[in-house]
Design goal:
154 residues; 2 domains; four-stranded antiparallel β-sheet; two-stranded antiparallel sheet; 1 helix; 41% strand; elongated
């Protein structure tokens, strides 16, 4: 009898965590570059034994509820929007923008709202510089990344 309370409690806790993930997804639906989380549930097996019926083995598993095994980012392509800003970028498919802060730490983001600073470097809304690779004459990528500088003709 007491096992049924534990089973019910496990299900309620898993459901509470699932609702928390859904709430986070809804709260960030308009955040640029946000990728939703998907919840994966698993069964909680508390006991497993083999019983015999008519001299044939029959496996029996007694459940102990459910739990959230993992959450996974959904990296499927979102819709692309026209912003009418020449410095806004979008990623079609997989990948991230590389940005560097003032201390030299590199971060990865899918948010593509950029503007230029006084030196002409592309920066995001947090002031981090967009990084990229220089190409040689043959179109091969150079081994080091550089700040992306653009020159807008007005």
């Amino acid at each position: 009898m007491i096992q049924s309370f534990y089973t019910g409690n496990a299900g309620l806790n898993a459901n509470k965590e699932w609702l928390s993930v859904i709430s986070d997804n809804i709260a960030n639906v308009n955040t640029v570059g946000f990728k939703a989380e998907v919840v994966n549930f698993n069964d909680l097996i508390s006991r497993s034994f083999t019983a015999f019926s008519n001299n044939a083995p029959k496996n029996i598993e007694i459940g102990g509820g459910a739990f959230i095994a993992s959450t996974v980012k959904d990296f499927s392509q979102g819709s692309l929007m026209n912003t009418n800003s020449p410095t806004d970028l979008a990623l079609d498919g997989e990948g991230f923008f590389m940005v560097k802060d003032q201390l030299g730490t590199t971060y990865y983001t899918r948010a593509g709202q950029f503007r230029t600073d006084a030196e002409g470097n592309l920066i995001n809304i947090n002031g981090m510089h967009l990084l990229g690779w220089m190409l040689d004459e043959a179109g091969n990528i150079a081994p080091n990344y550089y700040l992306i500088t653009i020159f807008l003709i007005v």
